[in-house]
Amino acid sequence: MASKKVESVKVAVRCRPMSEKEIVDGRACIVQVDAKRGELIVANPKPDTSEPPRQFTYDNTYGQDSAQEQIYCDTAYPIVQSVLEGYNGTIFAYGQTGTGKTFTMEGKEEPQENRGIIPRAFEQIFYGVDQHPQTQFLIRASFLEIYNEDVHDLLSKSSKNKLDIKESPDSGFYVKDLTTCVVKGIEDMKAVMDLGKGNRHVGETLMNRDSSRSHSIFTITIESSESDNTGINHYKVGKLNLVDLAGSERQSKTGSTGDRLKEATNINKSLLTLGNVISALVDGASTHIPYRDSKLTKLLQDSLGGNTKTVMIANIGPADWNYDETLSTLRYANRAKNIQNKPKINEDPKDAMLRELQDEIARLRAQLGDGTLTAEQLSMGGQILQAGDPQVVEVEKIIRVEDKAKIKAIEDKIVREKEEILLQTEEKKKEIEAQKDIAESEKKKLIEELQKEAEEQQIAQEKQSKLLKKLKQMEQKVISGAQIMEQAVRQEQELQKARMELEMREQQEQQLNQDINDRETENTEMLNNFNSKHEEIADKDKKLKKLYSKFQSAQDEMKDIQAEFAQERQDLIDTINVLKQQVCLKNLVLTSFIPQDQLSLIESFAQWNEEGEEWILPRLDLAGNNLRGPGAGKIKKKSKKNEKEYDGAVSQRVQTVVQSILQEYSEDPMVMPIEANPTVYFMYTDEGAMRADSEQSESKPKRLKSAKRPASGKKSSAPKENPQPKPEEAYPQARGLVSAKRR
Ligand SMILES: Nc1ncnc2c1ncn2[C@@H]1O[C@H](COP(=O)(O)OP(=O)(O)OP(=O)(O)O)[C@@H](O)[C@H]1O
Predict the structure, then answer these.
(1) 102 a known binding residue?
(2) Which of 99, 190, 594, 595 is disulfide-compatible with 734, CB 3.0–4.6 A?
């Protein structure tokens, strides 16, 4: 039975050690961790403050000398185990840049004990697979990055491309066209991880990105099937999200423009939305949870308030200079503790890929049988099996194939049969040729028929070989425990150690619980033993003091939250101001270079795309200079002769394309009426706006007197007055821009 118990998001806080620089700079350590009690105390480093230290309690807390193994056993181990059982699980690291999120999630390869959650999860998964030799598994991995509110596929060669997030009624939000790799062992998983990290690095260098400003999500999907007593297969699908979030510190927008501003605003947007989602979830009164406000929260919807087992690891630094950010992270983590999820096992999902694969394998096996197909099957075999090929991206690798000997026998048989067909054909040919009582024309006809028959048989043989190849590929994707024995043996010892550690901790926990119970009993006894008013008063006084200190810390908390809101408000005002400046600049460019009537036309055609959160112009590829082909804007650099030739070619191409498009789309109301100005040509050169109309098209375009150099974004460089448009020009609103009528 699938569990539907409500369970809270588990929150662990980890404080990294002082960095070398912090030690050299003589920074004070302001964080104290009591791992046994899951407590953490932060002192205010401001010299003139009377504020008492802040105390927080979480499911787990880890100090500066905490071990990666310990953190894995406490936080990730139970989640990964659940994913193997068919639950969804999410582990995410949150915190300021440089506090150890990546160290916690990935760790270091050497020394071994510094390996983080991700490599340890790989080991646990394949160890888990090995423990179930009767179960078949299909394990897939995907890796994506959210940067600047754009989703990039880190396993794709074109990781620069942005992917769309779509919504399906069954599985919620998902990334369309995301690469998914089938993995069969730890080495495959590592290869996938390294490929993604490499692509992330390339993106960083090529596109001037900073990985601490992007969120990465590594997802492992584990499908398993087990047959019951009656031979019916039952499927389960567990999904593990391993999330390394962008640095949570406030992004400064001061002085940012263009891409950098967009980046700063979007990073805040994702994390702000994550915070808003958390707040809305824990605030009983909220009916709307703003998942749709950012890509990150769309993809993590199930992990926050959904059917997933979730662990948040908040990372902080110990030094005094991080005080504000540390408090902010701790408050964030405190709120997350109250999120309630309802994890459930995903049983027999409709879209289980493993089922499709197994069906396909069974079908291929039935087709191949013991290697012989009927003549009818042979003649149509290929076509039968083309349909329903599951969409799995394959990882190239060499792996063990089940039924190796059987498949080899079939392969040999196919080769043998091929040779026999050739031999028989030759023999029959000779027989026909030797027959003296048949006319030459008849002999020729018979030989032709014989050859045709032989060719058909060969085609059928080839189809059979293809079937065999396909069967091999299908079987390679499905793994069962026994196949990865070697790797498992290597890791068994280590996992054994981890399990022992876990058992030890469980014992410790039991001991602690026992202690608590004992103390509670003691307390009750003590209470019962109150025999004087004096003691009662003293006790009440103690309780009052306790309550008062709670009241004070609640007040402090309130002050902090108010200060945080004020800061966020100021941030938003800053963003609005910078965006306003950007809008003014864009308006200046638009009114200076796009004629008003064209601008209105474009605006009337523009449509807001909810999914992509951007304006789009339908069929933009059919409009304006796009029709003129590549290089249209580079005319200035060509010689007069080349220009003429180029113009002729372009004009001819434009006419052909325009005509064909007009014909094709004449009935379509969404197509921009490009025929209105098919020869309009806009130019802007290094020297400023250029006139290049029909009268001047033979000569080098000249800069308009009134045209200014382009505005660089600084207020001082914007043109101060409108140049006078020429009366004959169709674009009276455009400044510094004229149409060029070219034929
Ligand atoms: N618990 C730890 N023990 C030892 N070293 C640590 C620990 N945590 C972090 N470090 C070290 O601190 C540095 C910063 O850590 P890391 O890169 O993991 O931070 P981050 O939060 O992921 O930063 P970013 O947001 O920039 O990705 C690294 O050199 C890392 O090795």
Answers:
(1) yes
(2) 595
Above 0.90 for ipTM, yes or no?
yes
Cα separation of the two ends of the chain: 76
- What is the CA angle 118-122-127, rounded to 5? 145
Question: Ligand 1 site: residues with CB under 6 angstroms?
Answer: 16-17, 95, 97-103, 211-212, 247, 315
For ligand 1, atom 11, name the residue with the nearest CA. 100
Q: Could you identify the residue written with the tokens 């003139």? A: 48
The residue behind tokens 């027989």 is 431
Q: How many whole angstroms from 291 Cα to the centroid of ligand 1?
A: 29
DSSP 474: H
For ligand 1, mutation pick of 13, 16, 31 (most atoms within 8 Å of CB): 16
Helices and strands, counts by H and E, the chain? 17, 23
Q: In what order do the strands lie in the sheet with 39-42?
A: 31-34, 39-42, 54-57
DSSP labels for 319-349?
BGGGHHHHHHHHHHHHHHTT-EE-----BS-
Q: What is the DSSP letter of 152?
A: E
Contact 162, 150 (CB under 8 A): yes
Residue 97 counted as an annotated binding residue: yes
Which ligand 1 atom lies nearest to the CA of residue 16? 1
The pTM is what?
0.63
User: Cβ–Cβ contacts within 10 Å for residue 515, how many?
Assistant: 10
Short-list 387, 305, 401, 323, CA closest to 560: 323
Mean pLDDT for the stretch of residues 187-197 = 91
Q: Are 701 and 633 in contact (CB under 8 A)?
A: no
Residue 232 or 316, more confident: 316
Ligand 1 atom having least distance to the Cα of 244: 22
User: From ligand 1's centre to the CA of 680, what distance in Å?
Assistant: 57
98 annotated binding-site participant: yes
Q: Ligand 1 center to residue 95 CA distance, Å?
A: 11
Residue 104 CA: nearest ligand 1 atom is 18
Q: Which atom of ligand 1 is nearest to the CA of 62?
A: 1
Ligand 1 mutation pick, 19, 66, 71, 103, max ligand atoms within 8 A of CB: 103
Would you state the torsion angle of the CA atoms of residues 436, 437, 441, 444, taken in this order, to the nearest 10 degrees? Answer: -50
All domains of the chain in start order, with CATH: 7-341 (3.40.850.10), 353-479 (no CATH), 594-717 (no CATH)
Residue-wise pLDDT for 532-576, tens only, equals 677 778 888 999 998 888 887 778 778 877 877 787 788 778 878
Cβ atoms of residues 588 and 708 within 8 Å: no
Rounded to the nearest angstrom, the distance between the alpha carbon of 65 and the centre of ligand 1 is 13
Q: Are 303 and 15 in contact (CB under 8 A)?
A: no
477 is known to lie in a ligand binding site: no
CA dist 499 and 497 (Å) reads: 5
Please give the distance of CA 732 from its chain centroid, rounded to a whole number. 48
Closest CA to 99 of 135, 64, 74: 64
Q: What is the mean pLDDT of the chain?
A: 74
Nearest Cα to Cα of residue 92 among 332, 280, 342:
332
